[in-house]
Amino acid sequence: MRRVTLAGPDGSPALGYTEGERYGLPCADQVEVLSPEAAGVILEQLPGWAVAGPPDLGRELLAHGARLRRHAHQMTCDLRTAPPADSAAPEGFRFVPCDRAPEDVFPAWWAAYPPGHVDNRRRDGATALREELVPLLAGEMLGELLPCSVLAVDESDAVAGGVLVNRFGDLAWVTEVFRHPGRTPSGLGARMLAAVRERAYATGWDRLGLAVTEGNPARRVYERLGFTLVHSSMTVVIPAVTGT
After folding, report:
1. What are the phi and psi torsion angles at 147 (to 5°)?
2. d(CA 168, CA 6)
3. Given Cys at both, which of 28, 108, 143, 237 links 17, Cβ 3.0 to 4.6 Å?
4. Per residue in 27-64, pLDDT tens?
5. Count of alpha carbons within 13 angstroms of residue 103, beta-carbon side
């Protein structure tokens, strides 16, 4: 991934970012603000891009017409000191490796984010399966799917929930925590994540990372399981035409 620096009107550095792709758009990721001109430079030089950076920058861009995609908090858990938690599957369910076909995982994953959920994204199911879940499971979106990932299956062996963990640089990164709300008991997500903590530690990982969207009550569950805040970020999409 290439690191890029953009200059302001006076030629001095205004911001730095890592080139990437998100939501099918070019993305300026991990933005570092280097001058007060950063927002103006982004609006002028990166129309149509997704931009992920500090919340203050995101709010400034929103005030100039950008569209919010996600306000998230990055958290990590030190697996060596994580508090104890129930990691057993509830009655009627089993935890199994994440080795099912994407089409078998999809129904529970799709049902976990209904309209009104903070992580619901407006797109059709076929697109979500093809462009998000399939490449995520294949390790093509972030990094390889790690063996500490788990699925919860019910008595009919149907997937009812899961926690997916992908390699992200030198970190094991929780990319999805989901359960079918109509077919699973509350607390299943916490138990699955506790099981993943144990499996990750047993396979040589010292830390787990994840991102939780602002307003998602799951953050309290993550904190109870030993995850602590590292930093917050906001991802916005810059208008294709800024009007300047």
Report:
1. -65, -10
2. 26
3. 28
4. 999 999 999 999 999 999 999 999 999 999 999 999 99
5. 0
